[in-house]
Amino acid sequence: MQAVNLRRWGWVHKWSSLVSTLFILMLCLTGLPLIFSHEIDHLTGNEIEAPAMPEGTPRAAVDRVAAEAVKAYPGLVPLYFFAEEDAPDVWYVKLDTRVDTDESESTLILSDARTAEVLGAPNFDEGFMSVMYRLHVDLYAGLAGKLFLGFMGLLLMVAIVSGVVLYAPFMRKLRFGEVRQERTPRTRWLDLHNLLGIVTLVWALAVGFTGVINTWADLIFQAWQAEQVAALQAGETRVLLATDASDAPAADGSLQTAVDRVLAAAPDMAVSMIAYPGTLRATPEHVAVILRGDTPLTSRLTQALLVDPANGEVLEAGARPWYVTALQLSEPLHFGDYGGLPLKILWGLLDILTIVVLGSGLYLWIKRGTTEVRS
Amino acid sequence: MMRIWLWPVLIGVLSMLGLIAGLVSEGAGDWLSWLALAAPVAIGLHGLSRSGARPLARGGNLTHAGPRRAGRS
């Protein structure tokens, strides 16, 4: 590479790294416990579980679950029901003062899916893990904080790519993995920085870029909602279940019947989420029922159906747009939660190696005055 | 060129395989993803331990020369 090109890439690498390093270091440090948040909650007894009941105990209507939740939290309205694959007896219910808030002050509770009883509210708002979560996700600054961290993530992408460009000229006289012992500490850290940077490259790009996409989640769902509403208004929808379909329970205005009609229209799917009309995931008039398949990949890629609770018509407002697919695939690739504990441990180790890359990069910059003349 | 990029490309391909395998299949896919992603981790940790350098976070004395090993070059 020409010396002038090398200098330009060096400039790009230096500044993209310098601006973002402290934030990326913070993200790596706070992300480390978050990888294991499920295990940590379990160990510290913060996990709320539904009591054991005989198998096949009938489930309560979701309307009753909603009524019990509102009774326990007066002044709030339900926004969403979430179902976790590995906790089938529990509904997570999100409540807020209105359906159209930004949800930053919302309350998440757990309800027993069989008795509708409120089991409790996980302590998301206080404690060590909550601080880690808020620092990692939005710096306590809502959407602005998310977008800022997303921008830092983009700078990290630039730093990684420019680092790869610089890798070759630095390695011209070295064998792969060689860490020169006989030179100054700075040389040793430079070799280590290059080695760890290049081995964590693909993982760091994947986790970094999917993290950036996750910071756009709110905007993505807003765009999807707007698209669905537009499709509804233009009549560009596919009716999956007509109002007078005979093979499904007749609509009676209840949420449970609306959900049952969606499941009748989409066999072999399971409910992942129910969104009340007016929320970010639904439309002003329709309940959105988000369904998931039962394979590892299709359980991530959800399908959203809309149902009018009053007349029971089940609609599909267009296929899932590509940007929603991208977001849904970004979540597991960022969290590393799709391959059991061994994958989480590998995620943690790669995170630590990345911390060493960042720390050594900072060290190399601080010690830049002592740069040796390269032969 | 080949000499410089052979290992990085190999590790990159393995990492990609590991990231995707666990996503598309359970069981065998999980095993494949663990094994494939263990490659960059093992090489990284090996380099770290062999360098004689202490992680910065521990506040080790960075100017300390560290245990000298026989030069490999």
UniProtKB/TrEMBL annotation, chain A:
Source taxonomy: Bacteria, Pseudomonadati, Pseudomonadota, Gammaproteobacteria, Pseudomonadales
Designated name of the protein: Peptidase
Organism for this UniProt entry: Stutzerimonas stutzeri (Pseudomonas stutzeri)
InterPro entries attached to this UniProt entry: PepSY-ass_TM
Entry keywords, A to Z: Membrane, Transmembrane, Transmembrane helix
Transmembrane segments: 12-36, 147-171, 192-213, 345-366
